[in-house]
Amino acid sequence: MNLGFYSYFIAAIAYGFFAVLLLFSWRESLQGKLLFITVTISTIWAVAAVKIALHDESYLLLYQAFEIVRYISWYVFLLKLFDVSSSDVEQSSFQRFSHKALFLSVGLASLFLINELLAKVFSLPGQFVLGITGNVLLALVGLVIVEQLYRNASAGFRWASKYMFIGVGGIFAFDFYLYSDALLFRSIDQSWWDARGIVHLVAVPLLAISSVRNKNWSLNVFVSREIVFNTSAILAGGFYLLAMAGAGYYIGEFGGSWGKFGQVMFISLAVVFLFVLASSARLRSQIKVFLGKHFYKNKYDYRLEWLRLTEDLAGSGKSRSHYRTAIKAMAHIVDARAGSLWLCDEQKRYRNAGSWHSGHDKNVLAADDSLISYLSEKGFVINLRQIESHAEEYEALCLPEWLSEMQQPWLIVPLHGVDKLLGFVVLADPLFVRAINWEDRDLLKTAAKQISSYLMVLETSAQLAESKQFEVFTRLSAYMVHDLKNIAAELNLVALNAKKFSKNPEFVSDAFETVENAAGDINRLLQQLRNKRAQGEKKVEVNLSDIIVQVIKAKQQALPAPQYEVVMASAVVTLDKSGLSNVLAHLIDNAQQATEDDGEILLTLSETTGFYLIQIKDSGHGMDEDFIRNRLFKAFDTTKGNAGMGIGMFESREFARHLGGDISVQSKSEKGSIITLYIPSRLSPA
Questions:
Q1: 412 pLDDT higher than 60
Q2: How is residue 564 annotated by DSSP?
Q3: Quick one: pLDDT at residue 458?
Q4: Is the pLDDT assigned to residue 368 strictly greater than 80?
Q5: Are strands 563-565 and 601-608 parallel, antiparallel or unpaired?
Q6: What is the torsional sign of CA 321, 322, 323, 328?
Q7: pTM value?
Q8: What are 86's strand-pairing partners?
Q9: Is the confidence at residue 377, as pLDDT, over 50?
Q10: CA atoms in the 13 A half-sphere facing the CB of 35
Q11: Are the C-beta atoms of residues 225 and 296 closer than 8 Å to each other?
Q12: What is the pLDDT averaged over residues 648-654?
């Protein structure tokens, strides 16, 4: 009996089955993908070993090559586990160690792989000993990595991965003994080599258990209703055929001269009857209902799903974007590869507030848009694959054209607040197509309620924090007014005594000192109050071009000096002239601070449908998309340290929106910025 064949054949089946499970159940984690690659390589290696066990020498090179490639894949997988196995405090040092160890171990394995390939071309003395020595060293390196990973892992990761340590450690330990024995006796022990496949067979379920325990590897497998149904049908058909074959054998044995004929006819009719039953849609439906009612639980383990959703949302403190966390929590439920979140803003328009694995979409939906109305009234989860096949269900829905341009949109999940549609999430197709049934929809709607509550709490917290900041600002303003009153009192006192003591040298000296101190205090207060003047002055008819020229003239002392490219010579509107001047001065000041002295700042005035556009373009260091979306217009969030209070851009946008306009920003890091101020042309005098 060829024990090696059966040993490696069963190991290949086990590895192959585990690889299929991983393929259909990984998420986005790097560790899950590396485990899938490692198991796939091990499958190929086991198949090559089966051929070697059958004495097929043509597979020897493939076997030897994948022997080393298998070591490399295990090294990469294990060393990447250092990224998720330790605490946050120790993680950076472990990552540095893993990167160095990865380079050395993979480099060593690559050298031995090259040696195996060259051995097929050049016949050199000692080639066998060198190859066996390489395998001994590679197994030893694997044991060291497993030991270091286990020693430095956190208690939680050690518990979740203990079976993986046993399985992989057992593989490396067995290989180390096998090749050490071969190095000592100059030949590989056939019995040990045959038993090697059993070691790998035992390791596979241990790996699977650790995969299920580790959320970072993202294995989440359940047996679907279809698999249960098909398996039950096959088993029932098999038992039926066995029973019919037994009955046919009985007819053939005891049927006399008609026995053989009766046997053939009986078996033929039995097979035809089986196909008739198998093709019956009604019977199939009844079997599915029977299995679902008596043998099958729900598609989801709702306790685990709820715990995972809660954990995903609770873990948002580690993420810079709460919106990204909300999208990711929703996407995990149905294995979506990407997603985007739209939320209602102060102007009752729905904007893209965040994204996960997808680009930022700048399209805006009005409150009366067909999609918004449908989601508000129906509250259904929209399956974009079923729009055409279920036209009657979506007859009142008209999707925006830009939705089809997104990255494979699949589901639209509404997020309802207390009395309005808070927003919605657009999820992209999963890696593998899956059907959505009532159970998926109910789970998504339930999760949407939780996520809506989460977003409303975030919004309320942000508003409360902003109110607290305004309260601090008001208190600070009161202190400043108090200081100004004291300064004014000192100066008034000097003015009152000037006529009486103007010829007294000591008085003059004290007066100059008082004025000098007052000037210093005023300059300090002006520095704090810069760009924070109140709005609401009398509206007058002004030419936007004239205001731009005036502000640019006032800003010529700082570098780089702003320039004005005249596109429109005249654009007359009625607004607060001082407020607009302050906004432009602030935007130019920001551009000057962000741009080197030899850079360029260019202002233009143009017109589009319904708006005049004042554009400030600079060649400065620019801003990334995350900063623009989450920080640029946020009150009291400043990058200038003590030099600013972070309300300049906030006040500028509020001024524009008060007019009915807005401010848009286009920028990329190290590539400059373009700030566009929209002023409604309806403000023009009739």
A1: yes
A2: E
A3: 80
A4: yes
A5: parallel
A6: positive
A7: 0.39
A8: none
A9: yes
A10: 29
A11: yes
A12: 80
Q: How many CB atoms lie within 10 A of CB 401?
A: 8
Residue by residue, what is the 3-state secondary structure of 594-636?
HCCCCCCEEEEEEEECCEEEEEEEECCCCCCHHHHHHCCCCCC
- pLDDT, position 13: 92
pLDDT band at 296 (very low <50, low <70, confident <90, very high): very low
What's the start-to-end Cα distance of the chain, in Å?
102
In the structure encoding, which two tokens stand for residue 661, read together? Answer: 């306009």
- Identify whether the C-beta of residue 602 lies closer than 8 Å to the C-beta of residue 562: yes
Among 215, 148, 204, smallest CA distance to 171 is for 204
Q: What is the pLDDT of residue 123?
A: 59
Cα angle 196, 199, 204 (rounded to 5 degrees) comes to 130
- How far apart, in whole angstroms, are the C-alpha atoms of residue 475 and residue 480? 9
**What distance in Å separates the CA atoms of residue 150 and residue 212, rounded to the nearest whole number?**
18
What pLDDT does residue 88 have?
45
For 456-466, the pLDDT digits (tens) are: 888 777 777 77
Token match 């959703």: residue?
Answer: 309
The predicted model gives 273-302 an average pLDDT of 59
300 contacts 392 by C-beta, under 8 angstroms? no
Q: Sheet containing 601-608: which strands, arranged edge to edge?
A: 563-565, 601-608, 611-618, 673-680, 662-667
Residue listed under structure tokens 């939680």: 156
Please compute the mean of the pLDDT values over residues 504-524 and round it to a whole number. 74
Which amino acid, 566? V
C-alpha span between 39 and 33 (Å, rounded): 10
- HEC sequence for 155-173: HHHHHHCHHHHHHHHHHHH
| Structure-token pair, residue 680 | 């409604």
